[in-house]
């Protein structure tokens, strides 16, 4: 009986991330882990890693990076409220994510332009880059 209970507690990381609703499919979770978007103790993980209660993971999804602590294990994907009970995001992670979102919204990150270049500006760019032109 103890052996059976021990087997139920073993969960693959890709399956847990899917059950916790970080990714829509296990295949996406596995691909994210293999591409280095999931870290444990500052190192890349493997899809077969077994998360334990209390483990801390850094997960990158899109522009956001979350630092979460595992609260419970599950291999069954359920509703969002139940999935959110599987982990807790750290306070520092929440603050960092909100700050980054505010910066993106303010346009501080990335390139901002005045819009599409005019015909003269395009000609000048073409000339600058060494293009022949219509002269």
From TrEMBL:
GO terms for molecular function: DNA binding; ribosomal large subunit binding; single-stranded RNA binding. Belongs to the HSP15 family. This is Heat shock protein 15. Residues 11-74 form the RNA-binding S4 domain. SMART domains: S4. InterPro entries: HSP15, S4_RNA-bd, S4_RNA-bd_sf. It comes from Pseudomonas poae. GO terms for biological process: cellular response to heat. It comes from the Bacteria. Pfam families: S4 (PF01479). Residues 107-135 are annotated as: Disordered. Keywords: DNA-binding, RNA-binding.
